[in-house]
Amino acid sequence: MKLKIGELAKMTGCQVVTIRYYEKEGLLERPERTERNYRLYGDGDIARLRFIRHCRQHGMSLAEIRTLLVYSDHPTGSCDWINRLIRTHIEAVEQQIRDLEHLKTHLESLYHKCDGNREGGCGILKSLIDGENCQYCQARQRRPGQERA
Amino acid sequence: MKLKIGELAKMTGCQVVTIRYYEKEGLLERPERTERNYRLYGDGDIARLRFIRHCRQHGMSLAEIRTLLVYSDHPTGSCDWINRLIRTHIEAVEQQIRDLEHLKTHLESLYHKCDGNREGGCGILKSLIDGENCQYCQARQRRPGQERA
DNA sequence: TCTTGACCCTATAGCGACTATAGGCCCTAT
DNA sequence: ATAGGGCCTATAGTCGCTATAGGGTCAAGA
Asked: Is B148 in Cβ contact with A78 (below 8 Å)?
């Protein structure tokens, strides 16, 4: 049974535009077409898209997934590279959790700085202007990026 | 004492290009210029840039910071909005931590799936193809985005 | 005096992973 | 016959920077 793009989208929880985007990026092969030029997908495509989505859910970049797909399509003797990839991801995730925990304590101390009115100025704004003496902040000033929380 | 852009950058741990970008985005006012057209910054600018950087380190978007700056420039009687903003951020951060913890357990179970060789196929790849029965994954399939780990 | 290098300027394009918009064809139901 | 949904392509926009190109300014050293 062949699926149209909308059906594949529904099955995989992936948006239609995203599927087309993956095709453009070379992650999905160009599928069959109907005589009306509609894309038609088979079982292999479903599995491949699921693979891509699982990888994305595990925080892998499209570039990494591309390489994983090559390994998957042409198996070699060892999977050292794959092991390293997973290990690296685990470490990155751990670092992100630490950063977020720290950010959370900051935000909470900020939250307690407001007494509910602006007499004498809002404590939150004041703290944001003055900043706080914090190793974390100093460190983050030197390596910006990934600051979107 | 007036500062050139590079000096301001050094003081705040912000890159020169980023300062110019904030100006273009209307977060920083257009500063004085020397007769050679170099930007010159005063104390007010330093404080304002520090404010912006602190907010960014707390994960606020430039749009939110823009609004905060308006509040800061034109104080009103209440800071409900600011309180809600911080509260919302704390909740978002908590959600991200939960997501990442879950992701970490997934990655770890994945890591243990590889026995070091490819005889019969790599367990990691197999798991990625098949996915795992997991509420988390199902949920994420329905609300994508924020998947960059 | 010349040149080197660090700093400054503007304008524009690129990053990643989508998302949105415009403009148009196809198909079914009312 | 027309309205609504799904499909197509191509292009631009999102966010918060970052990089590149192409040029002017300025102080120190050979």
From this structure: no
Whole-angstrom distance, CA of residue B2 vs CA of residue B79: 33
> Is residue B59 domain-resident?
yes
Mean pLDDT to the nearest integer, B105-125: 68
- CB atoms B141 and A106 under 8 Å: no
Task: Identify the domain containing residue A124 by its residue range.
Answer: 80-142
> Percent of chain B having pLDDT more than 70?
72
B67 with B91, same domain?
no
According to DSSP, the residues that pair with A41 across neighbouring strands are A3
Angle between helices B135-142 and A43-57 (to 10 degrees): 100
Judgement on whether residues B12 and B62 belong to the same structural domain of the protein? yes
Written as six digits, the tokens of B41 are: 């910054």
CB B110 within 8 A of CB B124: yes
Residues 34-53 of A with CB under 7 A from strand D: 37-39
Domain assignment present for residue A58? The answer is: yes
A149 touches strand D (CB under 7 A): no
